[in-house]
Amino acid sequence: MSGESAGRRPEAGDADAGAGAPLHHRVPDLGALELLLAVARLGSLGRAARAQGITQPAASSRIRSMERQLGVALVERSPRGSRLTEAGALVTDWARRVVEAAEAFDAGTQALRGRRDSRLRVVASMTIAEYLLPGWLIALRTQRPGTAVSLAAGNTRDVADRLLAGAADLGFVEGLDVPAGLDGAVIGHDRLVVVAAPSHPWTRRRTELTAAELAATPLILRERGSGTRQVLDAALAGAGGLAAPLLELASTTAVKSAVVSEAAPSVLSELAVREELTARRLVEVPVRGLRLGRELRAVWRVGQRPVGPARDLLGLTRGAP
């Protein structure tokens, strides 16, 4: 390296104190080791610096820092270039093995990421699974065409069980809070509405329905454990609690069909009945003083925040209703 001064030669006392210090204090980082290998290969600190994409002063400073850390001189500088000292040749041989091991480590972790990113297992409560996830998954397909996605639908309890059992990577729920053992993030909001067939007497009322009247009426409802039922139970707890349901069904589609057939009213997600309300197959019945809003959440196991395709899907949910 032309014109450079080696400065004071490193001494053993310059090295970090002894084997008791943490390894990362005693062993140079990969960037420094790669630079040393480049010097050995190219015979010039300047050419090694260019190969590593750094300036020559930065490369010189890094070599000096490594020499101080190890307590030995590694490179001799002269007008004809740079060559390794005897200690430098030994360190370079060891550095080559470390870098090769790091390359193997990197290849292995890339393979793990590739295997992880090749599939995405999603589990969601019924409303989100039926009315929101299809659009999100289509958008994800354009970002990650090589990722195979599976979707399981169930109630909030099912979502929690599958995530906790490691059978899903990301879940979506509509209940009041995050199930035990899970972390989550609010991605949107929804509202439950009371609906009835157009011929039902409630649709011709001149006054709003009261919470007590709703609570006392046998309804067609989703099963216990669903987010819809959880929110409704909590909302009507102060009005005496829900009467025994006329029917309990595990599918929002089945509930809607039963209500349309004039069996009884129900309380369902506004997302789920939007089309039926527009077509007047169902009619919304106003209820006085009853709050039926709820948060839509993405959930995952505690300590396992979404990565890869799960993180990308989570990003696509921003702006949900």
From TrEMBL:
Source organism, top-level taxon: Bacteria
Matches recorded under Pfam families: HTH_1, LysR_substrate
InterPro entries: LysR_HTH_N (IPR000847), LysR_subst-bd (IPR005119), WH-like_DNA-bd_sf (IPR036388), WH_DNA-bd_sf (IPR036390)
Stretch forming the signal peptide: none
Residues covered by region (Disordered): 1-21
Keyword Cell inner membrane found: no
Compositionally biased intervals (Basic and acidic residues): 1-12
Classification via Gene3D superfamilies: Periplasmic binding protein-like II, Winged helix-like DNA-binding domain superfamily/Winged helix DNA-binding domain
This protein's UniProt keywords: DNA-binding, Transcription, Transcription regulation
Cited PROSITE patterns: HTH_LYSR (PS50931)
Residue ranges occupied by any HTH lysR-type domain in the UniProt entry: 28-85
Keyword Ligase applies: no
Similarity-based family: Belongs to the LysR transcriptional regulatory family.
Protein name per its UniProtKB record: LysR family transcriptional regulator
